[in-house]
């Protein structure tokens, strides 16, 4: 059917609008690209790499700042005959180390900590954030199961990265350590005991850290929400006081509950060093039975005070640094 003159005139007048409309549509992002972008970001707009960077910095700051207390904990968990401390109080153990070895004695093994803490915490926090998001932990309300499960999964992954350097670190922290330094310890362990020695305590570490992390993360999220409800005007999710208080409370509770397992982990990691007892297997149950049989039930609580003293401020430092890092990276984008 032939077009009339009026039809031609109408089509001519509308065509620029049609072209403009088509051009505007091409400038709009496609639905698929928007969906894909959302999948690459979590609830606060940060990406996986951002969590790794913020977590790595937080882990380094936490462990470097609290390293002297960690040395006290290791010494107090070991027997005096095996390079441990003969003192049962933190103050006396501290004075003894400074008097006999100088301040440098508190920092033996810090190189191993530096090598392990950054990568391990990068894995730790990034896996936690992703799992928490997938499990619905970012939805409104309190979700302790999601937070605890995400924390448990995160520690299984991070412990695989951190355990080798933690073994080296604790061996260097002993008073009568036979190792001259980081590289000498690694080389000697590989030559004498084999690669498996670096992961002897991994099962125990996971058994300890899964409940530790589950309690820690669930407590942290609960304390943070409680503080925000009690004082909503002064406490928001970006407020430093919220992270320091919630992180400190979570660290204290989780560390106290898991101290017996931490004693077992330290004994397994330092076995055979400076005359320390050796265990026939890596079994947590067997190690607990032997420690209790030879030293009594109270031996499983050795180092309780320095452990709590370490994790309370350490958790506060770690969480506040991590949240500050996330906020900084979010503002940079």
UniProtKB/TrEMBL annotation:
Annotated compartments: Mitochondrion membrane
Main location: mitochondrion
Positions of transmembrane segments: none
Membrane topology (UniProt): Multi-pass membrane protein
Keyword Transmembrane helix applies: yes
UniProt KW keywords: Membrane, Mitochondrion, Repeat, Transmembrane, Transmembrane helix, Transport
Entry-linked SUPFAM superfamilies: Mitochondrial carrier
Keyword Transmembrane tagged: yes
Family statement drawn from the similarity comment of this UniProt entry: Belongs to the mitochondrial carrier (TC 2.A.29) family.
PANTHER family, alphabetized: MITOFERRIN-1 (PTHR45758:SF4), MITOFERRIN-1-RELATED (PTHR45758)
Designated name of the protein: Mitochondrial carrier protein
Solcar repeats: 46-134, 142-226, 238-328
